[in-house]
Design brief:
TIM Barrel; about 400 residues; alpha/beta; about 55% helix; single chain; globular; 19 helices
Length: about 400
């Protein structure tokens, strides 16, 4: 059988999973993906955790302990989520070691309510880094205006960062500048640059969703002909900027000191429009030195029928620019599109975080009343977690 995921990996694309849950960990499913599907990284976010913790049975034993201790809901969420991420880091450690620290990473996001507060974001990033205490951890910081200096300050402390919620090209350029500044400060602070990792998570499918909605509203044949083109063009031009920054003299000085480049990561790669090919945001974004973080359904879809062509990005830049020119001609305001997506992205994660807090609050109340006593399955999860290196 054709190993399509192996071909994708050989083309320079690091395959990461956009999901994490206690069930996936306790069942061995994550390790199976690592061993059998070329998986070399994991990302999480508040929405993923809200969904995972809605399945309370997997968390009952830990919720019961937290309830007995009288831990407040904010601290309980921190304990529950960091437990899972620490365990996942241990599962992915072989990929980290095999890649010299480039891959095998697991991401956890700072509280999204801090997206517009620089100092609190930096403090939260440091607390998560200390609490999880794994070298293959990534702290996710959103690419808001307040997030940019937080990215620099966090990297300067020797903490690895996954920059999330990037939608626009200009903001991406600012993110890369924040990364370089952070490494320069880290070097000045005496940190080993070879130990610091970073990716820049450029969101893809959401761009098409917003742009296509506007094209449909315009209704002209010229507008409709542009559906499904904006997201890939946007990412392709981002890769062009990546190539320029990471071939600069400024970068070379850091590379000479042992630094790894901040790889572009294609996020939000599941197809939202059923009329589009289900692996479009993988097949059309293949290039060396990139990461594609996918839901498990997309990983299996690519394994089944994905087509790997070497480098589908380089050489596409003029065609990508034409897409933007054509969008402007039909009066789609991409500046406004990007502003809307960034605002909605933060709002959606905040809403998921509040949902997570509310769910944990209810679970703690139930556990405190004796309804959360762990059964055999939950006890088994606890033993498996301890064996895997996780700890509460």
């Amino acid at each position: 059988m054709t190993d399509r995921l192996g071909e994708l990996s050989a083309a320079g694309v690091a395959i990461w999973l956009d999901d994490l849950s206690r069930t996936r960990l306790s069942s061995g499913g994550l390790d199976q993906l690592r061993r059998e599907k070329h998986l070399v990284g994991v990302t999480s976010n508040p929405t993923i955790f809200a969904k995972a913790l809605s399945d309370a049975d997997e968390y009952n034993w830990q919720l019961r302990d937290l309830a007995i201790r009288g831990v407040d809901v904010e601290e309980a969420v921190r304990m529950l989520t960091t437990y899972d991420v620490r365990w996942a880091c241990d599962v992915m450690r072989p990929a980290y070691d095999a890649s010299g620290g480039v891959d095998g990473r697991v991401s956890i996001e700072v509280d999204p309510r801090l997206a517009h507060e620089t100092d609190k974001t930096v403090a939260e990033a440091g607390a998560l880094w200390w609490l999880i205490d794994r070298p293959n951890l990534f702290i996710k910081i959103p690419a808001t205006e307040a997030g940019l200096p937080a990215i620099t300050a966090t990297l300067a402390q020797g903490i690895s960062v996954n920059v999330t919620l990037i939608f626009g090209l200009d903001r991406y350029s600012q993110v890369m500048d924040a990364f370089l500044a952070g490494l320069e400060q880290a070097k000045a602070n005496g940190h080993d640059l070879s130990k610091i990792g970073s990716v820049a998570s450029f969101f893809v499918s959401r761009v098409d969703t917003e742009v296509d909605k506007r094209l449909e509203k315009l209704g002209s044949d010229e507008a409709k002909a542009l559906r499904g083109k904006a997201a890939v063009a946007n990412a392709q031009l981002a890769y062009e900027r990546y190539g320029k920054v990471f071939s600069s003299d400024r970068w070379q000085a850091l590379a000479d000191a042992g630094a790894h480049p901040q790889r572009p990561l294609w996020a939000s790669t599941s197809t939202k429009n059923p009329d589009y090919r289900d692996v479009i945001y993988v097949e059309q974004l293949i290039a060396p030195g990139t990461v594609n973080t996918m839901p498990e359904s997309v990983i299996h879809a690519y394994a089944d029928h994905g087509e790997t062509r070497p480098d589908t990005i380089t050489g596409s830049y003029d065609a990508a620019r034409k897409v933007f020119t054509d969008l402007e001609a039909v009066r789609v305001d991409m500046t406004d599109v990007i502003a809307v997506l960034e605002r909605e992205g933060v709002e959606k994660f905040e809403a998921s975080w509040l949902e997570l807090l509310d769910g944990v609050r209810k679970s703690l109340e139930s556990a405190a009343q004796g309804a959360g006593t762990p059964g055999r399955a939950a006890q088994g999860n606890a033993k498996a977690a301890a064996k895997a290196g996780g700890n509460a």
